[in-house]
Amino acid sequence: MSPDDPDQIASGQRGPAPTGPAQAGGVQSVERGIRLLELLADAGGEMTLSRLAEAAGLPMPTIHRLLGTLVQCGYVRRRPDRRYALGSRLIRLGETAGRALGTWARPRLAELTEATGETANLAVLEGSQLVYVAQAPSPHSMRMFTEVGRRVPAHSTAVGKAVLALLPEEQALDLVRSAGMPAQTEHTITTPDALIDELRQIRRTGHAIDAQEQELGVRCLAVAVPTADTPTAVSVSGPQDRMQRIGEAALLPALRRAAEAVAEELTGRGQRGTRS
């Protein structure tokens, strides 16, 4: 940040020297705008102006200027209650990114289905929900099918709990509180304390289980994709009885290999994109 930053002067503040990408030649206003979008997303999609300014650590004039531009471009909207929320243009960007991620990951999911015989899915965290971006269906006549693009709660799904376990506990709780914790079935976790206990167990074991919590008769195992920029998880799901007969010990090695392969694919494409 320049010592003559007009926003800093207007607020009577002088911030610390810049660090991170902007210092290496990035455009500071772009970096700050992206940071505001990330803060909104991490908070479940909406925040008050004062909370956003506090979280960003920026002067109020800077926040107003950045939000004004983001609102004008459709990436943020100002609600009647004066809260700021993610805008509709981000949906198009997210859908496009999701389709690209699904295309890259689909061969890895096909390998997972071949190894386990069950349906494999890839899901990413968007706001307070998980969105399925790719699937490889099981060859069985009785199999699980989840439409690509479907949004599901984080608290009642294996993919959701796998990515929540990556987050600090307070952030995970903020996300589920913003969406609520409705019971999808009689087995759904519906209290914050029970969810925290579950997330701690997931961190210990490295995998999440949905035991008929989202849909009766369905069991799902999920593993988070390591190093993914956006919290992402790979899962394998099938009828409860068949999944239990196969057993976690037989399913988890292939599931973990798939998650690592997706991570390598994402890393490789990121490096190729940087060089291009």
UniProtKB/TrEMBL annotation:
Residues 12-27 have a biased composition (Low complexity). Coiled coil: none annotated. GO terms for biological process: glycerol metabolic process; negative regulation of DNA-templated transcription. It comes from Actinoalloteichus fjordicus. The lineage of its organism: Bacteria, Bacillati, Actinomycetota, Actinomycetes, Pseudonocardiales. Keywords: DNA-binding, Glycerol metabolism, Transcription, Transcription regulation. PANTHER family: HELIX-TURN-HELIX TRANSCRIPTIONAL REGULATOR, ICLR FAMILY, HTH-TYPE TRANSCRIPTIONAL REPRESSOR ALLR. Pfam families: HTH_IclR (PF09339), IclR_C (PF01614). This is Glycerol operon regulatory protein. InterPro entries: ArsR-like_HTH (IPR011991), GAF-like_dom_sf (IPR029016), HTH_MetabolicPath_Reg (IPR050707), Tscrpt_reg_IclR_C (IPR014757), Tscrpt_reg_IclR_N (IPR005471), WH-like_DNA-bd_sf (IPR036388), WH_DNA-bd_sf (IPR036390). Residues 27-88 form the HTH iclR-type domain. One of its GO terms (molecular function) is DNA binding. Residues 89-268 form the IclR-ED domain. Residues 1-27 are annotated as: Disordered. May be an activator protein for the gylABX operon.
